[in-house]
Amino acid sequence: MSDYERIAKAIEFIRTNIGNQPSLAEIAAEIHLSEYHFQRLFSRWAGVTPKRYLQILTLENAKTLLRQNQFSSLETSYELGLSSGSRLYDHFVQIEAVTPSEFRTRGQGLCINYGYHPTPYGQIFIALTDKGICQLDFIEPGAAEEPLQQLRKLWRNAEFRETLGETSSVAHQLFAKTAADGLPISLWVRGTNFQLSVWRALLKIPPGMVASYTDIAEAAGKPKAVRAVGTAIGANPVGLIIPCHRVLRQSGELGGYRWGITRKQAILARECANYDEDFLHLQGNKAKERSHPKL
Length: 295
Hints:
Number of strands: 8
Strand order of the largest sheet: 4-3-2-5
Largest sheet: 4 strands, mixed
Structural class: alpha/beta
Shape: globular
Strand content: 5-15%
């Protein structure tokens, strides 16, 4: 069993027993590790202790975040969510849609580089062209070829090359502690105008914050199209970068996720933990500025 699988199992146990607030010993026993080894493994993987992680994983925390967002102020929450450690989202992520002619030729003359990389949430598949990242999927056990097969069907005339050197920089940037220097990240994805508007709205939700489907529908300019928004979110071809995991139901419940509820909760919890640390660091810097005003 891989470290991710152990941690995923631990998170699933916490999620289903959240009302009982399980102890460190109970969680460690569930994945057949000693408390000492579980504490070390979990802290290394998540960057926080199991106790802190348990606090973040409560559903009440998600509901509180939703209430704070007020469901109609994505831009306001974006401003409030900015911090020095927001990593990838310190960059501007732009979406370049596939043109009809490009789709019609099914990738003729196009070279797509792809690679598989380990992450804290399991293995990912990344595919990119010289125009931008076109696909990012989480890989389920025994299904490593599925994303590549789907991509080959979509772009049957393209040239495919497994090039870890090209894709590793993307994988590194996703989980770097500080925002990497360089050009803005570009996404080259196919979607309807409505889907593109939904995906752009998702990009405005900063790490550590969440939004409802209603919120996204309003941001996309279609306040009554909540169900269609859910479908567009489910069609997101670039997981994690377009943060569909940050959308919850109006009640605060997690709702569905293409790559599994446990993974969704794990990603949200880690982002919340990092956001809390960034926010405290930012507040500390502001306090220093106030106590040492510039002359």
